[in-house]
Hints:
The protein contains five helices and 19 strands. By secondary structure, it is of the alpha+beta class. The strands form four sheets. Strands 2, 4, 5, 8, 9 and 10 form a six-stranded mixed β-sheet that branches. Strands 13-12-11-19-14 form a five-stranded mixed β-sheet. Strand 16 (286-292) and strand 17 form a beta hairpin. The radius of gyration is 43 Å and the shape is elongated. The termini are far apart.
Amino acid sequence: MHRRSAVAALSTAILLGVAGPAAAQSTTAPPASTTAPPTTTPPAPVPAKGTLKLTLEKVNGKASSVLAGDRFRVRGTVKPYIPGQKVVVRFYRGEKKIAAKTVAVLSSKSGNGYFVLGYKAKKAGHITVRASHRATDTLATLVAKGKGVDVLPLRASPGSKGLAVRVLQTKLKSLGYVIGQKGVYDARTARAVLAFRKVTGMARIETASSDVFRKLAKGAGHYPVRFPKHGKHVEADLSLQVLALIRGSKVERIYPISSGKPSTPTVLGTFKVYSKTPGTNAKGMVFTSYFHGGYGIHGYQSVPIYAASHGCLRTPVPDAVSIFNWISYGDTVDVYL
């Protein structure tokens, strides 16, 4: 009896030792969570800032001109260079877009980006080249300052009209030659072409051939001022048979003239205007400015391309009044060969 009780007590103790503590604690723990902790997305990189610049090549230097049909180059520089970038180059005549090309940016030896694009201008006029880079994840928007180039026609002649004549007149006027009605190859424009041909040593005719436009494209035709320290003055180069109205070193107007023929040569030297006679005198001299004795600058009906006067400096009659009004008493007149 006692033995049976002891065994029962031992069994109870064993059961209590195994299950008792677990039973005394809370029920089964909840399973571990399977949800991943939230992740933070890093901010997108800020596109790099840079510069885009254009240079025009094969455009005759400072003149920035080409002849119609000639090819010139557009060179662009992109800083910094980032692989995969592209630039759009656009060409405008006036406000009208005439072409657009997308070019890839390449890496140069210096580490910057660059591109080169050729373009052939088929028609005369002024072309503006612009370029831009649209923003990407790695490079911000870039816009280049536009560059201009004058496309000159191949020929124009007296009586013609239109764009070719306007381009011709613009170039001549910028050099000081006196042009006529805009867009019309009139008599005054023809005289401007003649004066340009004289200054550049070309045949003394009034037609603007391709050679004239080519010289204009290269920036030729500047009158070589000999006496810039004479202030407001007149220079007559008898070897060229042209007259220039000048302020310091700035040439304001250039005209064709005819000076004294070999038997009655024009006096050489530096003189002052001492008398001015408006109107037309008995000898057919129109609006005369005298600078030495009977020598003067005046308009005359006959102004050939060579020296043919009795010693005065003849100018075409239509130019006589404007020249007369420009010249003042006391102005210096330099006459030389």
